[in-house]
Specification:
This protein is α/β, with parallel strands linked by helices. The protein has 10 helices and 10 strands.
């Protein structure tokens, strides 16, 4: 996707001069202009820009007010703003830089200088965007199980602690479902670890596909998975677990060569009820105890923790 620039100036002549200069430099695919600060700010809200060139002195909303409005919007703070001014005094420039301007160009401007200053800000913005993407990717990787692409245990514990606190504070129920693949070691021993990995991936995809957007599915470790279900009472969470248990039995691994593999899961369900005072570890312990009972009772079943 090409770069874009917004030019804000109450002089149509100046805007056209800037447009002609920048189009010759071929730095941007999209060039948009605005006749005043208000029109420019509306444009910035409706479209993403890599650089903004803004006149300092304009009727209605001047450059300083535009910077203040830009600073109030988190989604606009990283967009570099080059101020245009006919003033030479240092005090004005310092004030603009203090308020978030990235650079200044004095009118009447030299075309080569304008292009050079815009090019620098565009390069900085591009590097900044690339760094953000890298950081977001690193954050995602740090919170994701590499095999199943579900959230990992660290993300789960952070999320669960917040959800439990919110549930206790608001007295809105919160359910936790712990799921274990039955006889998973036997799967690895009989069919090999590649099939075992395929089983984990398939179960993870099944869990994720059955949840609401605000639910959380995570790999707890090995063949164990955890579901965090906000605003869900015990019986409703049990019904979710039971539905997942039945769907798991329908999974096929013929493509992996395990045509006779029939998969089952066991699940333990616990809930933070209105009026409860618990923490994340308490809830996990309750669900884990229910899961242990499910295994002791013969596996391939859902057990609800005592309220």
């Amino acid at each position: 996707m090409g770069h874009s620039i917004l030019i804000i100036d109450d002089s149509a002549v100046v805007r056209q001069q800037i447009l002609a200069t920048l189009r010759t430099a071929a730095l941007f695919e999209t060039h948009l202009e605005a006749a005043d600060g208000i029109e420019g700010f509306k444009a910035a809200l409706n479209q993403s820009f890599d650089v903004i060139v803004c006149d300092l002195e304009m009727p209605g909303m001047d450059g300083f007010k535009f910077l203040a409005m830009r600073n109030a919007r988190e989604d606009l703070r990283d967009v570099p703003v080059i101020m245009l001014t006919g003033r030479e005094d240092l005090e004005t420039k310092i004030r603009g830089l203090d308020q978030g301007a990235s650079d200044y160009v004095t009118k009447p401007f030299d075309p080569a200088e304008l292009v050079a200053r815009v090019r620098v800000q565009l390069k900085l913005k591009t590097l900044q965007d690339e760094l953000k993407k890298s950081n977001q990717l690193l954050l995602q990787l740090s919170n994701t199980d590499p095999l199943t692409s579900l959230h990992n245990r660290r993300f789960l514990m952070d999320t669960l602690a917040k959800e439990v606190e919110r549930s206790c504070r608001t007295e809105i129920p919160l359910a936790l479902v712990m799921i274990d693949i039955d006889h998973f070691k036997r799967v690895n021993d009989t069919y090999g670890h590649q099939v075992g990995d395929a089983v984990l991936v398939a179960v993870a995809a099944l869990l994720q596909g059955q949840l609401r957007p605000y639910d959380t599915a995570a790999r707890f470790g090995g063949e164990e998975f955890v579901l965090v279900l906000p605003s869900t009472e015990l019986m409703a969470a049990g019904a979710v677990a039971e539905r997942l248990r039945k769907l798991t039995a329908n999974l096929s691994f013929a493509k992996e060569g395990a045509t006779d593999l029939v998969l089952t899961i066991s699940a333990g369900v616990a809930v933070v009820s209105p009026g409860s005072i618990v923490n994340a570890d308490d809830l996990i312990r309750q669900a884990d105890t229910a899961l242990y009972r499910a295994k002791q009772d013969g596996r391939n079943r859902v057990v609800l923790a005592s309220p």
